Amino acid sequence: MIKSIFSFSVLGFLVLSCATATVTEPDACDSQAMSFPLPSLLALPSQVQSGQTFTVPPFSKATSFDFSETLNKISDISSDITVGLNQLTLDNSSGELSWVDSVSVSMESNTLPSIPLANWQASSMPGAQVNLLSSVQATPAQMLSYFESGPVTLTITLGSSSGTEVNASTLELLQSLKGQLSTNLSVCVTDSATVSKSL
Amino acid sequence: MRYGLLTAATLALVCVSASAFADEVAVPVSVLHPFRYGFGVDLGVPSGIAVGFVLHPKTDAISLEASFTENVISPGGRLSIQLDPLALLPKLPVAIYADVQAGFTGRGTIPGHSADLPSLGYDYVNLYGGLRLGKAKNFHWFFEAGPTYMSVTTGNFQTVVPSSKGLTIGNPTATAWVVPTFETGFQVVFP
Questions:
Q1: Closest approach of chain B CAs to the CA of A90, in angstroms?
Q2: Fewer CB under 10 Å: which end of chain A, C or N?
């Protein structure tokens, strides 16, 4: 009798066992060094009047990130994935981006068209980092489809489309950079997936 | 279907045993006694092998156990509280009962695979129903099964997952319900 009960129990485990899990990858991060080619700037006049401003046109640079390997490992076991960004920053430890009042980021892949990822407007002078995370416009579904598809090209545009008004000291700073404004773009992707398996 | 058979068989056993000891049952008995203590050994998933100290505080209907556990990954610990109302029928040799367990396994790696597999640790809660074979007040063998809620953490992921193009990868975590898990073993209490 006891043997039968035990046998039924073991058989029950084998037939009915199942697991439902939520797997979370807290962050997959990458950081790319970027050198923005500076546009031709006005020469600084010998006599600068107080409050005089100069217009710096927007300038852009593209760089590539590839999170597809990590995401595809998870999509192999689950079709129910949620993707988000938990870091999108430009390094400003040197202060060379402190004049920037607008940053737009677009993304495109080999198979998908360019769409806006983030559009940041300065509310105050940025600190050691320009944090673009609060200005992300792409939806989680868009991010999943782009980041999963392969390498994604992010195009960063510094400055507003009509140009950015800067003072003389900022213009002098930009001219001292000898045509290249260098920074690092850091991106961290987080994802979670729900997995149900019968054992 | 199979659960139904198991439940029916268990209830039948309990009824037969209860009838056999009807005389004993009919007589009011004192359910309180001095502390009984002893030990238990069991084997199961997700606990692994467990060796524990057992305490029956004044009544056999409640059994407390603190166990040391070990599986191939890492040692751990487990606390459990068993509610066994049929233990109030002291000569009943078979009973069903409830057992709530909470435990942990420290983070570790499968021996020999520390370089190619991530480390793994987990906390868990088992919500078990059990079948006791033997009297609660001395030696008995048991089978338990039910759902388990697990919280799993991993470590060392960056070093074991090939990262392309300078990616840094955080350690994944997971929460899961696994249904059913099980364990079997014995307990002995004195006096």
A1: 17
A2: N
